[in-house]
Design a protein that fits this description.
Layout (H helix, E strand, L loop, with lengths): L2 E3 L2 E6 L1 H7 L8 E3 L7 H5 L6 H13 L5 H11 L6 E5 L2 E5 L9 H19 L3 E6 L4 H9 L5 E8 L5 H8 L5 E6 L3 H13 L1 H6 L2 E3 L5 H4 L1 H12 L6 E7 L4 H11 L6 E6 L4 H8 L23 H7 L4 H7 E5 L2 H15 L5 H13 L5 E7 L7 H8 L7 H8 L5 E3 L3 H9 L2
Parallel strand pairs: 5-13, 6-7, 6-9, 7-8, 8-14, 10-11, 10-13, 11-12
Antiparallel strand pairs: 1-2, 1-3, 4-5
Helix pairs in contact: 3-4, 3-11, 4-5, 5-6, 11-12, 16-17, 16-18
The structure holds pyridoxal-5'-phosphate.
């Protein structure tokens, strides 16, 4: 499989080039040329397949010869060493729990896959790489965890000061070793802008091999398609249409689902479920894409005002608004509605939603026609990552997994920087 840039469809890149570069030289996003053909048997056997097997069979089409089959199988085994259960929440509604990985968020899947691909490539090239990652909360720790202690790789995390939860901040700032956390006096969008400018900066590129670990990296995006297959496989004997609601920020998770649908997975519709940062629901409604400064919400990992995967969504639908709204419906909710959903689902179903999953749940409720459909929403984070918000909403204490408890006891270690590019650049040049 070859890749092109969403800004220039003529040039071709290998998987390896796309993964190492992160963003194309013209600042477009890498996108696969064509869709892999999965055979009928793959779909027939889906309900008996483990996620490792699904991941391997799908990934080999995208990776081609850049990683050997035995290495790729090993990568999939390492990435998926935790369960991804489909859990019934109420009649006709299921949560795909993506938060059982080491940092308790769905980003573990993409981050672990990408980090392992990248370390195969850095070993081949024998060159040190620096990974820049802007995070609205969860990406940073998932990526850093994937690379912790990996030789030849340095990770620099940028997060918006005061805008991530306490547990998230502890996760970001306590890893040590080859991981550095920069606390940026600005918003997530400022962090993302700093990273994008760094990639385009000549002086920096002369000095270091920069690469990206945001959802723009194709090696993070691709594995986010695998678990949609796995989810449908877990819906045994289902005869109804399936619709999937995805709580979204940068729309990488949703784009993973669109890729799965392109490969033939029978998902009738997706729901782009957002918080007040409703750029994509607005686009779906009126056909206008208008990025805006992000606003802060209790589902903070979705506080994105300029969603980076929008370009890939446009690519899939050839920028045709009429086609896109056939497949994707929009929904958005404010903090009050999110808390109410957490409370109601806890009281009626004894299921604890996190604020992001709650938005996914609400989006599903809006569109699901239970007569002929079953609905899945993605539960993207463990509720204990947002302990205070969740406890306040449901009116009860919740259990914190041991990994998160340990992390709270460690000493925070971060460097505060301004949101201006010159500060960031001089910091990097001193490294
Ligand atoms: C990152 C994140 C999201 C949004 O995912 P995108 O792929 O950026 O749309 C949703 N929920 C949680 C918990 C996240 O960490």
């Amino acid at each position: 499989m070859k890749y092109f840039s969403t800004n220039n469809k003529e040039l071709r890149y290998t998987f390896k080039e796309a993964v190492i570069q992160g963003l194309a030289p013209d600042e477009g996003l890498f996108f696969p040329v064509g869709t892999p053909e999965l055979d009928q048997k793959f779909f027939q056997d889906l309900s008996g397949k483990e996620i490792v097997e699904i991941g391997f069979e799908v990934a080999k089409h995208f990776v081609g010869d850049d990683i050997s089959e035995s290495q790729l199988r090993k990568i999939c085994e390492e990435v998926f060493n935790f369960p991804i259960p489909l859990v019934k929440v109420e009649n006709g509604i299921y949560a795909l729990e993506l938060f059982h990985g080491p940092t308790c968020a769905f980003k573990d899947v993409g981050a672990r896959f990408m980090s392992r691909c990248l370390s195969v490539f850095t070993k081949q090239n024998k060159k040190e790489v620096t990974i820049l990652v802007a995070t609205s909360g969860d990406t940073g720790s998932a990526v850093a965890n994937g690379f912790l202690g990996v030789e030849g790789v340095n990770v620099i995390i940028l997060y918006p000061k005061g805008k991530v939860s306490q547990i998230q901040e502890q996760q970001l700032t306590t890893m040590g070793q080859n991981i550095t956390a920069l606390e940026v006096e600005g918003t997530f969008d400022d962090c993302q802008t700093l990273v994008k400018r760094a990639f385009a900066d000549e002086d920096l590129n002369k000095k270091m091999n920069l690469t990206s670990a945001n959802s723009i990296n194709i090696a993070r995006l691709l594995p986010q398609s695998f678990y949609y297959f796995y989810a449908l496989g877990q819906l045994q004997n289902n005869k109804k249409e399936v619709i999937v609601s995805v709580p979204s920020g940068n729309y990488g998770n949703l784009t993973g689902g669109l890729l799965a649908k392109q490969m033939g997975l029978p998902i009738k519709n997706f729901i782009a479920s957002a918080n007040r940062n409703k750029i994509v629901p607005d686009y779906l409604e009126n056909g206008k894409y208008e990025p805006k400064p992000s606003v802060q919400t209790i589902s903070n990992a979705m506080d994105v005002g300029a969603p980076s995967n929008f370009a890939r969504m446009m690519e899939i639908y050839h920028e045709n608004h009429a086609d896109i709204i056939k497949d994707i419906k929009g929904a958005w909710y404010n903090d009050e509605e999110t808390k109410e959903a957490m409370k109601k689902v806890f009281e009626q179903e004894s299921y604890i939603l996190d604020p992001h999953g709650a938005i996914g749940y609400l989006g599903l409720k809006k569109y699901l026609d239970k007569e002929k459909q079953v609905g899945i929403f993605l539960e993207t984070a463990h509720p204990a990552k947002f302990k205070d918000t969740v406890e306040q909403a449901i009116g009860e204490g919740i259990e914190v997994p041991k990994y998160l408890q340990d992390c709270l006891k460690k000493k925070k270690n971060s460097i505060v920087i301004g949101k201006y590019f010159d500060d960031f650049k001089s910091y990097l040049l001193k490294q």
